[in-house]
Design goal:
The complex is a heterodimer of chains A (about 300) and B (about 290). Chain A has about 300 residues and is of the alpha/beta class. Chain A contains eleven helices and twelve strands. In chain A, helix 7 links the parallel strand 11 and strand 12. In chain A, helix 1 crosses helix 11 and helix 5 packs parallel to helix 6. In chain B, helix 5 runs parallel beside helix 6. The mean pLDDT of chain B is about 95.
Amino acid sequence: MKELVVLSGKGGTGKTSIVASFAALYESKVVADCDVDAADLHLVLNPRLSKWRTFSGSKLALVDRDVCTGCGRCIELCRFDAIKRESNAEDPLRPKCVVDPLACEGCGACVIVCPAGATSLGDAATGEWAISKSRLGPLVHARLGIGQESSGKLVTVVRTQAAALARELGSSLSLIDGSPGIGCPVIASLTGADLALVVTEPTVSGLHDLQRVAGVAKKLRVPAVVSVNKHDLNPDTATRIEDWCSESGIPVAPLIPYDDAVTDAQVNGLSVVEHSDGPAATAIKELWRSVREQIGL
Amino acid sequence: MRIAIASGKGGTGKTTIATCLASLLATRGERVTYVDCDAEEPNGHLILQPSISKLHDFEVSVVAIDEEKCTGCGRCSRACQFHALACLNETVTTFPQLCHSCGACSLVCPEDAIVEVLQKRGIIREGHAGPVGFVGGEMSVGEESVTPVIRAVKESIPNDGTSILDAPPGTACPAVEAMRGSDRVLLVTEPTPFGLNDLKLAVATAGALGIPADVVINRCDVGTTETQEYCRDANLDILLEIPNDRAVAEAYSRGILPTAAVPGFRETMLVLVDRMIERIGEPSRA
């Protein structure tokens, strides 16, 4: 079983459209949507949703208002500025401490210092994940709670569940839709994968962001291949990207031209290759053949 | 006055809107700072090409052990929620990459054996692009935790004038940290199913932070009208709809500010500037 992760560095370069098309082109796979804080693959795969399972990857400080004396020791020590005093209607001279759940990182320093024993750590509602069936095969996906920490841990849950399911079903591929950026969710989706396909666009930002995400792949010793989406938007920059890749020893896979059919497919809830026989669909099929060869399927 | 430019979905045009808005506000004589909070993949400097007057390392203090004092009692590793310390056979090993610099270990160590050492996690750039002030953060490649870099970027924002914060995509902690403390958030979306789905998440995020949000629909003539309908039903004001224009995309692709290069785009963006000013009032003069 191989793991292919599709990344981009820069957001909005077409990762999800390409993953959905690969899912339509290859039978023996499980699809994993590891872009857990802005997951979109379900909009194309339209899965029959099974049960969401909750996942807690971090802790959250809780203050017992009845016990809190409002002394503020926790406020002094919290390095995340996550605790404030709040006026207390019952006793206006004695404000209570309250936790901002979006700022709290669940470190427990407040629990250690509270002289009244009013603070404790509970499980933060990191998010939910599910294994669903779709017309393009099984989909493992998740929803991160708004503003939650630990997106990397939720990515790890999705990825390990997808890999386990692929092995169980005898599938030869776990096809992973990654998130933009280079931080913890990207590292969680990339570490130990067999191949990273980096989809970029022919802009100075696309090149800059590709260089950074390729740097992460290199550090993690995951081989990468690059494709440029909408390459005809700026052929000069597309060429600069290809030149940089060849200087850096990164193979360039077939490029994808701009095609209105990509958005049309999305509007119709279909992958590009299901919706169209146009230039983008043709290029994505060539890209898949190349990636398939690279990863050894 | 702080305005965050956010989106949920990546690639909707946050950086284009943020750089154009900052430069147009600045031409009116306002003190304006563009703040790049997308420290994983910062792009604002590619468009604004600022001259950098101050470049400093961003360092975080991470846990280290004073071996002389440590008795191996293990209280620190039990207190650490992030597994940045492990105690085995009365020997403590540290994993600085996992350290959140929370200080819990120092609070419980009876021997005062915890020291904090500085570790570089990125850089902060400060400078000017013509009349526009520039502050931007860049996390080092291979690091995981971008939120502290964003926090440090925000600490470098001048106290006066207007700042335009270019947020990272998504709705997780980095996007939240970028938006937190802003007076308004402008959500840039595109009218596609992906754009709309992620806009809804971004609206919920701004709501959880208690920040009023407005919407800009980029490439408004692609996709469907569902985004407009959603905004109407959710009482979100659409401040501007920008038609799909290959010339704008080409200018951006070459790293050129589209308001300076594309005929008519400056006028389009001035509409947005006027509508923002209606909401925030005339910003203070430089």
